[in-house]
Each structure stands twice: as structure tokens, then as C-alpha cells.
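Exam revision sheet. Question 4 asks you to relate a sequence to its structure. Input first:
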Amino acid sequence: MKKSFAVIAASLFAMVISTAAFAAEQGSAAEATAMVKKAVAYLKANGKEKAFAEFSSQSGQFKDRDLYVFVQDMNGKMLAHGENGKLVGKDLIELKDADGKFFVKSMVAVASSGKGKGWVDYKWPNPATKILEAKSSYVERYEDVYVGCGIYKK
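Answer key, C-alpha cells:
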């Protein structure tokens, strides 16, 4: 009896540790919000040209695990993207997710709202798993652009 209890306890402990390790590989909502606030402060202090280059850097300070910063203008044009540089310069206002949601339009609407910030839910490929997953991005307006960072929901 004691032996089977020890085996069960050890199995539960291993499961808790592996779940915690997996969670540590993903960014949290609080970390995404903090990254956007840090990016907005960097943008204010350094100007758009320098900030957009830093945000788009694959090894810069605005990329952490599955978290990365992106910046779009209020018409949906991508100005910086920490994961996929091929998106920079593209007009994405009509982009839909797998469910047909115009999520860029939703981000523009949130950034244009009285608060100028908030969360938008959609589906997007996770760069770590390459699988289409539920995602929620926090966006915050600064002047004529908005800065965003998203989390993947599991």
C-alpha cells in the first residue's frame, strides 16, 4: 500500500512539474501587457524608426518565447513585426482568421476606442508549434499607431 501511494505521489508530482514547465514556455497575459507598455515607452523615447527596427529584430529585447511585439497603423498596415518580417509593409486590414473574423479591424476598433487599449481574440499560427491556435492580443494606441503583443491560449 505504501509503495503504490509513493508511485501515485511521484506520478502526480511529475505531472505538476511538467505542466509548470510547459506554462513557463508560454507568455502570460500579464507579460504581454507589460511588453506592450515597455514597447510604447521605448517608442516614445527613441522614435518610430529606431523602435520599429528593434521591435522587428529576431534577437531584440521585444521577443520572449512565444511573445513578440507588432505595430500597425490605424489603417491596418504592418509597420513592425517581431516574428515575421515578411508582414512589414503589408496592408492587413482585410485579413481574416480561420473563423472568418476580421481581427485587424477589431484591433483598430479597440485602439480607436475611448480607452485606446484592450484585448482582441482570434486564431493565429503559433510560431513555436506551427499549429493554428486561439490567440488573444493586447493592443495599445500611441499617436497614429498601435502596439500589440499576443498570448496563445491552451
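Marking note for examiners. The mean pLDDT is 87.
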